[in-house]
Design brief:
mainly alpha; 2 domains
Length: about 90
């Protein structure tokens, strides 16, 4: 019973730093979900150096003169991939 009470208090904590930490945690979980949805975990056998290398490569491309073309291409691919997953996705509250 004491643990439930402590958990409830933690969930309802509205201090600025707690709210920011919670938001950052949610963002990181969502981004990890995107890595999983893209199939990168299975395709790389969960090799985090490879996944990180892919992300570093993407960041380098976004720093280049080809940024706008890369964003346009990746946005289109991402939207198509989301549409293909639509029947699987759970509706967001």
């Amino acid at each position: 019973m004491r643990n439930r009470h402590s958990a409830r208090i933690a969930r309802e904590d509205k201090r600025d730093w707690v709210v920011k930490r919670r938001e950052r945690t949610r963002q990181l979980i969502e981004l990890g979900g995107l890595v999983a949805k893209a199939g990168l975990i299975d395709l790389t056998d969960d090799d985090r150096a490879v996944i990180f290398g892919l992300l570093v490569e993407a960041a380098a491309r976004l720093r280049s003169e080809d940024r706008d073309n890369a964003l346009l291409l990746w946005r289109r691919r991402g939207r198509r991939a989301y549409e293909a997953l639509a029947p699987e996705r759970e509706p967001r509250p």
